[in-house]
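sorry to bug you again but im stuck and you know this stuff better than me. what follows is a protein written twice so to speak, once as letters and once as structure tokens for the fold. mainly i need to know what kind of three dimensional shape the backbone takes. anything you notice is useful, everything is just below:
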Amino acid sequence: MRILTRIGIPIFLQPAKVVQQGHIEDMAVRNGWLSFRVKNTGNVHFVEQAVRVRGFGPAEDSLAAQHQRAVMALSINLSDKEEILVILRDGDVLARISDLEQAGLDALAGQREVFGGESYVSLASLAPAITYEVDEKTLTLRLTVSPGLLPSTVLNLGSGRPPGITYSQSTSAFLNYALNWPDLKRLDAFGEAGISLGGNLLSRSFSRNPDGLFVRGFTSLILDERDSLRRWVIGDRFANTGILGGGAFLGGVSVSREFTLDPYVFRYPALGLSGAVLTPSTVDLYVNGILLRREQLPPGPFELRNRRPCPHGRPGAARGQRLRERTSGPTSQPHPAVCRRGLSRSRLGAPLWGPRQHTPHGAGKPARVCQSPAGEPKRLRKRDLRRRDLRV
């Protein structure tokens, strides 16, 4: 086998007479920008080291003495932003308003001027809320902005529903039973059976007393609405209004708010923390001295939301760079009757027939049981107890 390779080596020869010359072509001014092309008309390579442009107005006065355009890197409270177009003047800098709005500075006052159809604002007129510094070596415009002018940052510290979760509604059935034969003479038993269709449950329970009497238990159809956290029960149910109210065995229709339908809903009032930072900072969330979460905060106001109350009576703390340690309580668990804003507890049962189950307190009469939070009509409230037990 034979392999052939061609290799070329460039050889540069210096001309007998070196001519280093350039020519400017296609000079034009469009929308306030000057553009031109530099053409090499000599016989050697050359690189532009510096370009100086001078413009003159109708009165032959230099425009450079009035203003000079420049593209500079923008830094706001030590946070780097994109490059922007500015106009440099003696003792002042004019920045394009659209660039400042894109960097997060909205609703700026100050002195404004229009160049090339675009609005500029004088940075010197924004003091003391905004101060600036021009670094000519790095071509950087550094702004120090009051936190109140910066956009607010909201961090959600709650644990929401995992993405892609699926709630199964497959058809299923169950049978539970228990037998008790204490002295080999008397036998008592309990049983419960049910079937689930499309997420709805039909169930029935029964029992046998030691004297041989069979007693029907609860027979009910449960219809759940997960999106609205609402549960309908058609049939028998024991309804209660909590520790401040009473309860009753109902045979009829009842509807209630059921938070267990969505275990990822936090029903109690959550804690929050708000403040402001002047520079980019890091906030650490501690609970019982254990670091649970670390987040980066840009300059400006911030708000930490949906932090759950601390267990065991110990408050939580948020610490951060240039952020004083802040402790938030309360130092105890919230009352189970208290709900966060936007949620409420309610329960209403309407009897259609009397209970048939034997209880230690007897059969009782049909009852209507209502439970509602504060803020509902007064006929469902009793002072500030948030619960009322109505019996008719």
